């Protein structure tokens, strides 16, 4: 992705709850259709409505469970409340599916109204911006040496907090920290193969105060990052962010959410390939 495209300030896209809300409205529409026929939902003359209603119940639950799965990938303090709303809604859906043949149309309408109100409340509790960062942190941490995991876990937490608060430059800076930690360790491992006397302290001294671009050059010298052609563009982005954090510049540099998401994806790819 070109650097120019990464630095545009774009409004974060909201998570698509439209399908879930549309599905709940469809339940209401089916009931109104049945009511106009002066029938119960389970009447033989309303058989199509009956099966459409059941299908929508199951589809709605499936979509809610997919959303719950996404929420489970972010910190509990942000995901706990919307997950509780989803669980409550699914209980209502299960009760409806189980008891549909024993409930009058009026009672069914009351239950659907509860579902609609729960879903309407859910949108207000969704941590929209955090859901946009689609990264499997646990999978990446498994690949990284154990003594780096605590530090990198903390950096991931900072990335999420900064992104949620729309502090995009800080998010990118923490991506740089994670990349430097991962690259520095892998560089040490490759150098160690050439000289068993080299210590981690030697490598830390060698890399201290180097720009991200210089660290990448050193990694390339020992055969790393061979199939990462876009690595310099992201290095330039990260360095720009760091320079602006220390020095005043007359030109405004304002990376947007897409720049952060691109950098997070790039960071994930690098870690996966370094420790494949």
The helix/strand class is mainly alpha
- The percentage helix is over 70%
Sequence of secondary-structure elements: HHHHHHHHHHHHH
The radius of gyration is 26 Å
The proportion of strand residues reads under 5%
Count structural domains: 2
Beta strand count: 0
Task: Give the topology.
Elements: H1 3-6, H2 18-36, H3 47-71, H4 76-99, H5 105-125, H6 128-132, H7 137-143, H8 146-164, H9 168-194, H10 200-207, H11 212-221, H12 231-246, H13 257-274
Give a brief outline of the structure.
This protein has helices at residues 3-6, 18-36, 47-71, 76-99, 105-125, 128-132, 137-143, 146-164, 168-194, 200-207, 212-221, 231-246, 257-274.
Report on the structure:
- By secondary structure, this protein is an all-alpha fold.
- It folds into 2 domains: 18-125; 133-274.
- Helices cover 74% and strands 0% of the residues.
- Helix 4 (76-99) runs antiparallel to helix 5 and helix 9 (168-194) crosses helix 10 (200-207).
- The chain is elongated and about 85 Å long.
- The two termini are 23 Å apart.
Summarize this structure as a short list of keywords or feature phrases:
single chain, 276 residues, mainly alpha, disordered N terminus
């Amino acid at each position: 992705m070109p650097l120019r495209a990464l630095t545009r300030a774009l409004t974060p896209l909201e998570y698509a709850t439209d399908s879930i809300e549309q599905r709940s409205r469809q339940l209401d529409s089916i009931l109104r259709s049945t009511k106009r026929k002066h029938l119960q939902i389970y009447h033989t003359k309303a058989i199509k409505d009956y099966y459409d209603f059941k299908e929508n119940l199951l589809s709605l639950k499936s979509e809610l469970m997919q959303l719950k799965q996404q929420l489970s990938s972010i910190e509990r303090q942000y995901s706990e409340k919307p997950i509780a709303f989803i669980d409550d809604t699914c209980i209502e859906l299960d009760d409806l599916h189980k008891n549909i043949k024993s409930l009058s149309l009026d009672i069914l309408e009351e239950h659907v109204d509860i579902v609609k109100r729960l879903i309407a409340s859910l949108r207000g509790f969704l941590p929209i911006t955090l859901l946009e960062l689609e990264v499997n942190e646990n999978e990446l941490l498994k690949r990284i040496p154990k003594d780096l995991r605590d530090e990198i876990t903390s950096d991931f937490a900072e990335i999420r907090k900064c992104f949620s608060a729309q502090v995009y430059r800080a998010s990118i800076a923490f991506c740089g920290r994670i990349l430097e930690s991962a690259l520095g360790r892998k560089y040490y491992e490759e150098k160690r193969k050439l000289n068993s006397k080299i210590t981690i302290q030697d490598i830390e001294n060698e890399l201290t105060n180097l720009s991200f671009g210089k660290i990448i050059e050193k990694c390339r010298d020992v055969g790393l990052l061979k199939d990462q052609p876009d690595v310099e563009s992201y290095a330039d982005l990260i360095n720009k962010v760091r320079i602006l954090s220390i020095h005043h510049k007359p030109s405004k540099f304002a990376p947007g959410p897409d720049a952060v998401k691109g950098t997070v994806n790039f960071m994930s790819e690098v870690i996966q390939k370094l420790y494949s």
